[in-house]
Amino acid sequence: MFYPLLSCNQILCFPLMFPEFRRLTFYLSTHSTAKYSMWSFLPRYLYLQFSKTANAFFLFITILQQIPDVSPTGKYTTLVPLLVILVISGIKEIVEDYVSLLLVNALKNTALNNAWQMILWKEVRIDFDSISFVLFFFSEPQATCFVATSNLDGETNLKIRQALSETATMKTEKQLSNLSGKIKCEEPNFHFNSFAGTLYLNEKSPISIGPDQVLLRGTQLKNTEWILGIVVYTGFETKFMQNAVKSPLKRSKVEKVTNMQILVLFLLLLVMSLVSCVGAIYWKDRYRAEPWYIGKNYDYHSFGFDLLVFIILYHNLIPISLLVTLEIVKYIQALFINWDEDMHFKGSNVYAMARTSNLNEELGQVEYLFSDKTGTLTCNVMTFKKLFLLPYSVESSHSFFLTKLSSLHLL
């Protein structure tokens, strides 16, 4: 384990100095943001696909076609197209998830030996901390540093962090090499503004540690050349990850409307099948004994059997190519977004990046916008007080506005 000296220009790392920590096991400072993993891909992907009404319907038709004597068509007339749809959609999901994973892992990694080492800022990006640690000392006077916490609480003003006074004067390699002690801190939790710990250093009196001495994962170092600290939380134990929630399987409005329309088509198909079954019963009662080629001992099928047959016959009312066409169109839309020159920032040669094509049509669909006059809430609590609803517009006259005051609704 190494304790990093973070710098805007360089990183200085030194080996473990607290022998008590050698027998402890900590989380690695890594986490996965991928939508799928090697083991969860198949069940998660199949759940996502068959939660779509069309795919569930065609799976039902495929099962019916495997029943002997029920299907008037072949066993594979729906199975093969359904497999093609699943394969194409699966390839798209894998490609998008893999590209997103490559972007996340684009940061370079450097292995450090058991010694002090200098690393150029070009080799390792350190703008955003990947760990949470207790601050020992900084390059700035009064042992203070400035951090931006906009990624955590949305506030744009810089926060001050204060190093421990007992360690603020330790800046030489010899002083650091003589450090010995341990830190006892609270269990990992999701509270950004709280921290309680105690530093036991060189058999001296315990030193209290509070939130002002902790630099959390997700914060950004500002106006400070370098800092040094000791790691207390890594990986999923950081407060940043404690507040993270598992990303849900999001669905666009177009997909919801498509599912509803397919459900309406299925109800129409069911009505057509029921009408056909009634017609079949009428035909059997009227012509049961007349056709000589049927025979008197012919066993006519039941109502339920005929219903399944007609459902299979009419199932093409719902186009099986609809979903795969939508998937291909969305993927091409994502490519056009990535290639759009109007969204190209030439200063740093950065293009727009569509990380997933499932929600293209949701772009720009903003219904509500909450804001206060300063841009930052004084207190991060929004309490609903009142809502005024009034039919008033810029084109409306002042007299019209006054006459409508009587229709004011206060909720």
From TrEMBL:
GO MF annotation list: ATP binding; ATP hydrolysis activity; ATPase-coupled intramembrane lipid transporter activity
Coiled-coil stretches noted in the UniProt entry, renumbered to this chain: none
Chain ranges of the P-type ATPase N-terminal domain: 32-79
Keyword field contains Nuclease: no
Keyword set, alphabetical order: Membrane, Transmembrane, Transmembrane helix
A Pfam entry, by short name: PhoLip_ATPase_N
Gene3D superfamilies, A to Z: Calcium-transporting ATPase, cytoplasmic transduction domain A
One Gene Ontology term from the biological process aspect of the record: neuron development
Compartment annotation: Membrane
Protein name: P-type ATPase N-terminal domain-containing protein
Source organism (scientific name): Bos mutus grunniens (Wild yak)
